[in-house]
Structures are given as C-alpha cells and as structure tokens.
Write a structure and sequence with these properties.
The complex is a heterodimer. By secondary structure, chain A is mainly α. Chain A has eleven helices and no strands. In chain A, helix 2 runs parallel beside helix 6. The longest helix of chain B has 16 residues. Chain B is elongated. Classes of the chains: A mainly alpha, B alpha/beta.
Chain lengths: 255, 310
C-alpha cells in the first residue's frame, strides 16, 4: 500500500474526526456569524455616508477587514481540533489506527488548513455580500474578489498552520489559545505601543503584524511590505508546524 | 506472534521496563500479570508504537507496529476505554477507525452488534457507562478482524454477563489460532481464561510459563489435614519423610502440608494410628503463585487497615 493511499485514508478519517463533534460546528458557526455580523455593520454604517470609502472601492474592500475576525475563528478552530485528541486521551486510539506519525501530521495539518481556510474565505465572502447588499453601487467584481480572497486565504492558511503547530506542541487547548492570541493580537499591539525601536522591530516580525498588514495594509512600522509580511507569516507557520510535528513524531503519545 | 526483545523504557532515572524479553504465541490466551507500576501498560504501549522504547524492540508478526499500513487488520487493541472524545457518538468513533484503515463501514454495524451496543451506538460517548466504553473499545479492537489482540484490563466495568462474554471471546479467538495477550490484575479471571502467563515486576520478567506449569512448579502439592493429634502427625511426617514435608499449622487441629501427596500423608497417619478427620488436596491458585512470585516486586504497598485482623 502506497504512502499516498495511507495519507488519503488518514486525511478522510481526520475530516470526520473534526466534524463528528459539536464543538467544531459551534466554533465554525460562531465564526461565520461574527464575520457576517461585522460585514453587515460595515455595510450599514458606510451606506449612511458612502463618501468615507476610497474612490473606486468595491464591496470586497468593505468585507476585507472582517478577515481579522475570521482569522481568530480560524486560529481557535485549528487549536481546538488539534488539541482535542490530547485533552480527551483520544490520541491513543488515533495513533493505534494511524501509527505512521509523519503521515498523521501531514493529514492532520492538511485537513485543518484546508477546512479552516475554506471556512474563513466563505465567511469573508459572505461578509462582502452583506456590504454589497447595503452598497450595491460598489459592486462585487470577480477579479477584485479573487485578489482579496486569495490574500486572505494565505493569511488564514498561515494562521491555521500556526494554530495547528502550537496545538501539537503544547497539547493543551487553553495553553494553545492563549499562545496564539498572544502572538497574533496581544504582543504586536503591546510591543508597538512601547515606542522603542527594538520593540517595534520585534512587533513587525510577529505573525499578527504580518496578518494585519495583509488585511488592512498597515502595520507597526512603515518599513513593512507585502513581501516582508508574507515572509513573516510563512516563517511563523512553518516554524510552528516544525516544532509541533517534532513533538508528535518524536515523543510518546501523551495527553 | 508478538515478540519483545530487550525492551527497555526509562523515564529519567526510573526504569519502567527493564530489558524485557518474551514471546506471545498464536493459539493461546496469554495473561500478562504484574503489580501496579510493574510496566505492563508501558510494555503494551511500546508494542503499539505509542511510546518510544529507550532500547530493544517489539514486533508483531516480525514487523514493528508503526510499519503496518493498515494496523487494524493485523492488531486489535484496547488499552484505555476512557481515552475517547466524549462528544462523539460510539458509531462515529468506530467509523473514523474504519476510514483510517480502509475498512468497509458495514463492518462498524457488525462489531456494534457483536458487542451489544446497538441501542446506544448513536448516543454521545459521554453518556456511556464504563462497561459500555469497554465494549466500545473491544468493538474497535475487533473492527479489522485481526489475528493479534491486546487487551489491557478488559473486564473492568463489565457486568457478570459481559465478563462471561469476553471470556468466551478470548477462548474462541485462541481456538481460531489467533494471538491473544490480556493484562489483568484479577487473578481468578486470569486463572479461568489464560493458557500461559507472563509475569513482570518492576519492569523485569519474573515468569513466563504455561499456567499449569506455573501452578505445579510453585511449591508442589499442598494437602490440608485435620486431626485431633496434629502435633503427633507433624512429628511423624517430619521424621518419616526426612525433611521433604513443609508443615504449617493452620488451626488447633489442622495442618497444611507441602511437598507430600495426600496418599503419603494418609499412609503415614494410618501407620502411626492417628485418626484423620479431613484429608484434602488444596487446589493451587494463580493468586498464591502470583503473590509468591511478585512479593518482592510490589512497588506500591498499602498500609494495613487499623481494624484488620479483629
């Protein structure tokens, strides 16, 4: 039996593992509702005074900021689905059924990234539609949508990998959530506010700042570019999966 | 067949499993015994690739567990019935197992029926009793119809009906030529179900023998004898058999004699004119044998209850 066939089987099992518990559905539902709500709010408030929008804006531009809400949903879902096995002891049967840990790592990360990225993209698309409902004159051009959603999909995938890697490394839902919220929200804000050049430099290289730049076009320093922000996301995502993967592959299966 | 060779697991300075070597053959139920903390579960976890050995190997049919592409078709195991997501239904749990190993989903309903969980299979596991969780774990172990089965304390939480059912299951698997390894601390249960026993203590192998061989080889036959002249009989046996007999006074008029047969004791009593009121061979129990073997290996001793012996 080829490794590819084992990977497909393990991936299928992972998909069903995620969606056979209510907590995943609740998290996904709350994420979509929050993002749609934010999109509705943006559309409603802008419709009162459309001149606040930049000239040539589309409904996609109005929906894009909701990506930050979606990112938190993506992070939470990635951490919760990755750590659930360790918190419940379910890692024991999981590794009995899928003992090739490298394959399990690939399947688990792959399914979490695909699932949460799709969820984020769908949620932001819905939010953009809500903006368009209030501002039909802005339009929903397909080309702009592909560009915005493509960029956000990259942010969501990076966030999902970070959440997945942190979850695998810490094996604790609470610890994982605190860590990713700290890395993505608290630390970038805190360090940027300190006002020292070193703290701004550090803030600039955190995943949250990269995500913020790619979503809003602004970051803690003026030196940030799309390339540097993208690179920051890639380095954090790959590093987190490397550490989490090492723990899964090389250490005993514990809670 | 399960082969364990020089298996060692260290946690810091503690050796949980220490250079363990044994085989578990096909066609027999092998009991895996040892006191708490002896290393039974750690050994089973290493066989299943859950824990990484510090040294040594554990293989199933000559292959490491992690190398099996569809392990459930080769090995079925129940280690910890509680180690499942409580928010998932029993059926969903088994379907994930089936999908992960490419097994047909129809097999899920078959094993659910086999373990008697049809009525609760759609319910979330958090509502299951311990016995239901044990049955679910057994169902997962049977899913791939494997040739090798490992169970860690499988009768925990099962009612009498469940115990009898699983006993029959082990026997039928062994009779079909499968390899069955069962760890348990219930000696009476093991004595009924096991053909062979592997005993470990403090991570080391203490005994690896057929059950009968272990019971016989422990201390020879034991005979209980009751007579109003117990002291005279004890003297007669001590002098008449030149130290072969080990005699223990178990009551004012009762002795337990080890090393002599009932016939030898009866003949000696008759020759000396000593009337006997009871002469009976004591059935050797696995519990006696186990306690004798593991007495030095028990890591966690309980204190005697204050009212004990009153």
């Amino acid at each position: 039996m080829t490794a590819g066939a084992v990977l497909v089987r393990t991936g299928t099992a992972e998909w069903h593992r995620i969606w056979s518990v209510r907590s995943s559905w609740i998290l996904a539902g709350v994420t979509v509702l929050a993002v749609l709500g934010f999109g509705t709010l943006v559309g409603y408030s802008t419709s009162g005074d459309p001149s606040v929008a930049s000239p040539g804006s589309t409904a996609w531009d109005g929906g894009q900021p909701t990506g930050m809400f979606a990112l938190f949903g993506v992070l939470a879902l990635a951490v919760v689905t990755t750590t659930a096995d360790h918190g419940t002891g379910g890692i024991v049967p999981t590794l009995q059924w899928s003992p090739r840990r490298g394959v399990l790592l690939a399947a688990r990360s792959g399914v979490v990234v695909a699932t949460t990225t799709l969820l984020g993209v769908v949620a932001v698309s819905g939010a953009s539609v809500m903006v368009w409902v209030f501002l039909p004159e802005f339009g929903l051009p397909v080309g702009d949508g592909a560009q915005v959603l493509g960029r956000l999909a990259f942010v969501f995938a990076s966030g999902a990998l970070l959440g997945s890697g942190v979850g695998l490394a810490l094996r604790s839902t609470a610890g994982g959530l605190v860590t990713v919220i700290g890395l993505v929200l608290v630390l970038p804000l805190l360090l940027a506010q300190l006002g020292y050049s070193w703290s701004t430099t550090v803030a600039e290289h955190l995943l949250g700042s990269g995500a913020l730049f790619l979503i809003y076009g602004e970051g803690p320093s003026d030196d940030m570019t799309t390339t540097s922000a993208s690179l920051t996301l890639v380095v954090w995502a790959v590093s987190a999966v490397a550490v989490g993967g090492w723990r899964l592959v090389r250490t005993d299966a514990t809670g | 067949m399960i082969s364990v060779r020089g298996l060692t697991k260290r946690y810091g300075r503690t050796r949980a499993v220490d250079d363990l070597t044994f085989d578990v053959g096909a066609g027999k139920v092998t009991g895996f015994l040892g006191p708490n903390g002896a290393g039974k579960s750690t050994t089973m976890r290493m066989v299943l690739g859950l824990d990484r050995p510090t040294a040594g190997t554990a293989t199933v049919d000559g292959r490491s567990y992690a190398g099996l592409p569809a392990p459930l078709r080769t090995v079925g195991a129940l280690l910890d019935a509680g180690a499942v997501h409580p928010g998932r239904s029993g059926r969903a749990h088994l379907r994930i197992a089936a999908r992960s190993n490419g097994l047909p989903l129809s097999r899920v309903d078959q094993v659910i029926a086999q373990v008697g969980l049809e009525k609760v299979a759609g319910r979330r596991i958090k509502g299951y009793s311990l016995g239901m969780r044990q049955r679910l774990g057994i169902a997962a172990a049977l899913l791939g119809d494997p040739q090798t089965l490992l169970f860690d304390e499988p009768v925990n939480g099962l009612d009498l009906d469940g115990v009898r059912w699983i006993r029959g299951l082990f026997r039928s698997f062994a009779d079909e030529g499968r390899t069955v390894l069962v760890s348990s601390h219930l000696m009476s249960e093991m004595q009924v179900v096991a053909d062979r026993v592997v005993v470990i203590g403090r991570g080391r192998l203490i005994a690896d023998a057929e059950l009968d061989e272990m019971l016989r080889g422990l201390s020879g036959p034991r005979v209980r004898v009751r007579t109003a002249r117990a002291d005279d009989l004890a003297d007669a046996l001590t002098t008449g058999f030149s130290g072969r007999a080990a005699i223990e006074r178990t009551g004012p008029d009762e002795l337990e004699v080890t090393g002599l047969s009932a016939v030898e004791i009866g003949d000696a009593a008759y020759a000396d004119g000593l009337p006997l009121h009871l002469l009976s061979e004591v059935e050797q129990s696995l519990e006696h044998a186990y306690l004798a073997l593991t007495g030095e290996s028990v890591e966690f001793h309980g204190a005697a209850a204050s009212g004990a012996g009153r």
